Predict the 3D structure of the following.
Amino acid sequence: MDADETAWERRSVVRVVPPVEPRKLAKVPFVELADGRLQGVVSSGSDIERVYVSSIAAGTHALSCSTNNNRPCGALHGYACKHLRLLADEAVVQYGLDRVARYLRVEVPDGGSLMSCLKGQPERTPAAVVFSRFLRHLAYLEVPDSTEPLAELHWFPATRVVR
Ligand SMILES: [Zn+2]
């Protein structure tokens, strides 16, 4: 890889939180620690049109996985489906194991894996909230790097009250 290519790649990536290691965006396009959950969007392995919205609750470690139009994941029965495993793996890449474990309030022994330490039960969580956060995240990735104020942020009430 030459220097030009490296510079181009760096400029083309807009990061909200710099990942600890490079992430596989195609598999897990969105992962975040928010709303008391590790949550994110995972591509279906078999159908490129379909995505799963997966989450693990902090504290209870309740597991949730459904499609973006709220169909329950057929693979989540008492133990984590592969979407949840991919999500957990990607969260560790994005945030580092210590931070994810602290957020979920789980003890992971040295050399242990996050998922094997989670004993939560499946629980239905509406996919819509996570999915709309994902869409907003995508919208901001489209905005080129700039120090100018973003016009669309003026729609948020907080800004309008100030003026
Ligand atoms: Zn699943």
About this structure: The beta strands are 30-34, 37-43, 51-57, 63-67. The pocket of zinc ion is lined by residues 52, 54, 65, 73, 75-76, 81, 83 (CB under 6 Å).
